[in-house]
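idk why but the lab printer keeps eating my pages so im just putting this in chat instead. protein + flavin mononucleotide:
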Amino acid sequence: MMLPYKRLLRPLLFQVPAEPAHKISEFILKRKLIWKILSQYYMVNHSVLNTSLSAIPLSNPIGLAAGFDKNCQYLDSMMRLGFGYVVGGTVTLNPRDGNPKPRLLRDRKNNSIINSLGFPSHGIQQVISNLEKERVSPLILSASGFTIDELVTCALKLEPWSDGIEINISSPNSEGLKIFHDPHMFREMLSRLNSNRKKPLFIKLPPYDNDKGQDQVLQLVNVGTSLGIEGVTIANTKPITEPKLKMGKGGLSGKPIFNDMLKMIKDVRNEVGAAIAINACGGISSAEDAILAIKQGATTIQIYSALIYEGPGVIKKINLGLKDYLNKNNLDSITQLANIEPI
Ligand SMILES: Cc1cc2nc3c(=O)[nH]c(=O)nc-3n(C[C@H](O)[C@H](O)[C@H](O)COP(=O)(O)O)c2cc1C
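predcted complex ->
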C-alpha cells in the first residue's frame, strides 16, 4: 500500500503555499512510526542496484539531495522511503533565519521549484543534538559558511556524524559563498579541510551561468581533483530573476534544469575521467532520467523536486526501472551502465 500521493496528498498540499506545505510534509515525516510501517512498501532490495560512492557502500544509487531536511530532523523517515543514502543540511555554524518571505514557489506547469531561502538553519549545535538522538547511514552532511574558517569548522564538526561531507559553495541565494568560486580561495579552503579530514569530501558545484561560465566551473573541478576530493555533485539550483520572490531572484530546480545538468556531467567526465565520483542532481524524476545521467558518467543520483511532484513513491519507481533496465540488458551493476568503475 503506497500513499496515493498524486491523487490525494498532492492536491491537498498544493492548496497551500509552498513553504507552509513543506512544513506540513515535515510534520508528517517526523511521525517516524508511520514510515517504519510503510517502509516495506518503499524498499527495493536487489543486489543489482548495490553500488558505492567513494568507499561508502550503497544499497542503491538514489540519494536525497541537500536542502530537504536542513536540520536533520527526519532523515530516518527519508531512508525508509527507499533511498540508498541521504544528504542532510545544508548546515551552518550559527543559527540563521534565511531570507525574507515569500522565498519558495512552485511552477507547476514546468514541474519546478524556485527558492530564495538563503540557508535558514538551526545551527550546528542543534543539528548535532538531533543527530545524537538518531544515527542514520549512509549519511552525507552538507556544510557551508561565509569565510574559510567558518566553513572548515562547520564541516569538521559535522564529519564525525556522517559518512562524508558535501561542501555547498553554490547556493545562488547567498552572495557570500561566491568567494569560494575564486580558485585561490577554493584551494585554500580545501587544503585546510584536507589537513584534518578523515572522510570522503564532495563539492556541490554551481551550474554554468553568465557569471561563472563552463571554464570557471571546470577550473574548480580540476583544483578539487588535484587536491584529492572524492567527488562533485552536479549541480545546485540555477540562478534566475523572479519578481514574485521577496528577494527578486532565486534558484530554479526540477525539470527545466535537467538537460544542462546532463551536459555538465559529460563535461566534467571529459575533464577528469574516472578520478572522482559524480552525483547527478537536477530534474531527475524517472528511471529514464537516471539512466541518462548514469550513462553520461554519474555515479549516483540525487533528487529533491521529484519528491514534491511525484511523491515518496518516486524512489521505488526509479529503483525498479533501473533494475529492470539492467536485467533486460544483462548487466550486473549500474557501474557497467556507466562504464566507469566506482572509486
Ligand atoms: C527548497 C530548496 C532548498 C534547497 N536547499 C539546498 C541546500 O540547503 N543546500 C544545497 O546544497 N542545495 C539545496 N537545494 C538544491 C537541491 O539540493 C538540488 O540541487 C536542486 O533542487 C536540483 O535538484 P532537483 O531538480 O531534483 O530539485 C535546495 C533546493 C530547493 C528546491
